[in-house]
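Notebook p. 47: complex prediction with zinc ion.
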Amino acid sequence: MSAKRQQKTPICKKFYSLQSGRWQPANRFFEAIEPELAEIDGLLVRNSRIVLPKSLTERALHIAHDGHLGMSGMKKMLRTKVWWKSMDKDVEEFVKTCFGCQLVANLPAPLPLVSTPLPTTA
Ligand SMILES: [Zn+2]
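Predicted complex, structure tokens below:
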């Protein structure tokens, strides 16, 4: 990818900023987490998670939504592999639109176990 093209996509602007140490105002948030960012084989990563470009976040939400895990289940699944700035908020908005996930979220807590006394006579 040419240097000129790299400037055009938001994720590549972060690469450029990461390499040059010069962060534009739009990427100030990323400057704050710079010690956690790295470039590995053309991917931008934050610690061990891939930083997704905005164009892929909707797809990631749909993949994580398989099985209607609800808000916490989706967040847990996504946090194992990927990261983007508004991930938590996007999951919350996404789950609000799904009736199945709402059902999972509103399940009552299981009743506590109660032991039954053993019979004392035959
Ligand atoms: Zn759902």
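Notes: DSSP finds seven helices and four strands in the chain. Residues 10-20 form the longest helix (11 residues).
Next step: compare against the earlier run before touching the bench.
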